[in-house]
Amino acid sequence: MTTSHTSDANGAGPADEAVRAELSRLRDSIDNIDAAVVHMLAERFKCTQQVGHLKANHHLPPADPDREARQIARLRELAESAKLDPAFAEKLLNFIIAEVIRHHETIAKSA
Ligand SMILES: O=C(O)C(=O)C[C@]1(C(=O)O)C=C[C@@H](O)C=C1
């Protein structure tokens, strides 16, 4: 059914157009945030690669559980004050650190 005051050629009316514009605006911001996350992670991995070489050169173990415990406690507090689920923040950090430890192990094997 087509009614000229609510629909255009695609069956979308003025309200749908506003919704599409809002969705597009929000998605532009999401794309910018995702790009920032990628750039920040790339910088973090540049640092951790250096840590990996330092540890391998000085025969230090790839993982440091005490350091991780401090990082998790700190990140959970930051998450809480930012109204982000602390459990999610912890899972994300653990996911990143697991990848870093894998890199450290690769560096140590090739040293
Ligand atoms: O700080 C270190 O010792 C690191 O190797 C870096 C890092 C991290 O990614 O933050 C990774 C592994 C360790 O278990 C703890 C922290």
From TrEMBL:
The keyword Isomerase is assigned to this record: yes
Record bears the keyword Calcium: no
SUPFAM superfamilies hit by this protein: Chorismate mutase II (SSF48600)
Keywords: Isomerase
Enzyme class: isomerase
Gene3D superfamilies: Chorismate mutase
PROSITE patterns: CHORISMATE_MUT_2 (PS51168)
Enzyme nomenclature, EC number: 5.4.99.5
UniProt-listed InterPro entries: Chorismate_II_sf, Chorismate_mutase-related, CM_bact, CM_dom_sf, CM_II_prokaryot
Listed GO MF terms: chorismate mutase activity
Residue ranges of every copy of the Chorismate mutase domain listed in the record: 17-108
Official protein name in the record: Chorismate mutase
Species of provenance: Streptomyces durmitorensis
